[in-house]
Amino acid sequence: MENGVGSGFQVGSRPRCRDFGLSIGALSPGPFNAITDVPGVLVGHSTIVEGEGALVPGRGPVRTGVTAIRPHPGNIFQQKVPGAIHVINGFGKATGIAQVQELGTIETPIILTNTLSVGQAWDALCEYMLEHNPDIGVATGTVNPLVLECNDGYLNDIRGRHVNKEHIFSALTEAAPGPVAEGNVGGGTGMSCLGFKGGIGTSSRCIEFGHERWFLGVLVMANFGRMEELLISGIPVGLELGRCLEGQPDAPPGSIVVVLGTDAPVSDRQLSRIARRCQGGLARVGSTFRNGSGDFVVAFTTANRVSHKDSSPFAAEKRLRDDSRQMGHVFTASVEATEEAILNSLFAAETMEGRDGNTRTGLPVGRVIDILRSRQALK
């Protein structure tokens, strides 16, 4: 059991869906097949796993954590990124979304955690931004911390609100480029997905034409759906698993947070169009966007950054045309990367026992591969 701050997970310790010959979509992934393929994007986790046995509210057992996404390694308040929020179903407690929707910029790292820890995460992220920007609230305006959540209360003592400043700061300061840990890590530690153990997953796509090349990456905190809904490459894998597995505890409606990053030169309005296409990836794995589910997409581009100190009333930028063929490729990339990120969260997650003996089993990968092989869905 992991106790305290840190990743709590060895990168690459669990196979991903492509390791079994499962190829999703037509576009190629980036080198890491992760949101960090977008140049400059950093991801950090802080994982908290403590105690076993019966729930004692406020004391544990604890199965939770924090995931931080930094759109670039610099000061994001001083160099904001164009951003958009798409709310698929608004049963959620996210903070900061209204200002992003209004102004079209993101000015803090993005924090993912559990529902009842949003307050602590907001406070810690606010403190982090104040430490790095002495002018906030003095010589300039305030700051808009962006925090999103899912409910991990089936496995975690969620009432205990065990996430604190130390965990937020650790995830932020340890955020790094390169491979991203998936499954039972960070904000995904206590999450469930499509009847099995869920959590963090990521994937990317490369978009090329002529001399131009962009990356689009997605990171998900997956916590939604029932086993019978699970689709992989269009095959009703969940229904087939249900015939050979003992009954899984029914999952509540659940939620998902999708964070999409790209370096394609698009506007915040175009990011909203791109974010909406993530619903296609969700539908491909079986999501029905159930009532009571909080489903949010946060999208940003590292192109066309917005300087906080730029006093010009005009903005000049290069961006894709809305009716271009390339925009269609970006849409395709958002669907494919979302689908594969969710599948990677399932393939990476391992069985976890939480409070009161509640257990979410890991996806039975061997049986899944047998099903896919029998349907000739593997390369």
List the helices and strands and how they pair.
Elements: E1 42-50, E2 62-70, E3 79-90, H1 97-103, E4 105-106, E5 110-114, H2 118-132, E6 146-150, H3 165-173, E7 192-193, E8 196-197, E9 199-209, E10 212-224, H4 237-242, E11 254-262, H5 268-276, H6 278-285, E12 294-301, E13 306-307, H7 325-348, E14 352-353, E15 359-360, H8 365-374
Describe it.
The longest helix has 24 residues, at 325-348. α2 (118-132) links the parallel β5 and β6 (146-150). α2 (118-132) packs across α3. It is built from 8 helices and 15 strands. Strands 3, 4, 9, 10, 11, 12 and 13 form a 7-stranded mixed beta sheet that branches. Strands 1-2-5-6 form a 4-stranded mixed beta sheet. Helix content is 23%, strand content 25%. With 379 residues, the protein is of the alpha+beta class.
CATH class label: Alpha Beta
Largest sheet: 7 strands, mixed
The total count of helices amounts to 8
Q: Would you tell me the structural class of the helices and strands?
A: alpha+beta
CATH topological fold name: L-amino peptidase D-ALA esterase/amidase
Low-confidence segments, ≥5 residues, pLDDT <50? Answer: 1-12
**Radius of gyration, rounded?**
20 Å
Mean pLDDT: 93
What percent of the residues sit in helical stretches (DSSP H or I)?
A: 10-25%
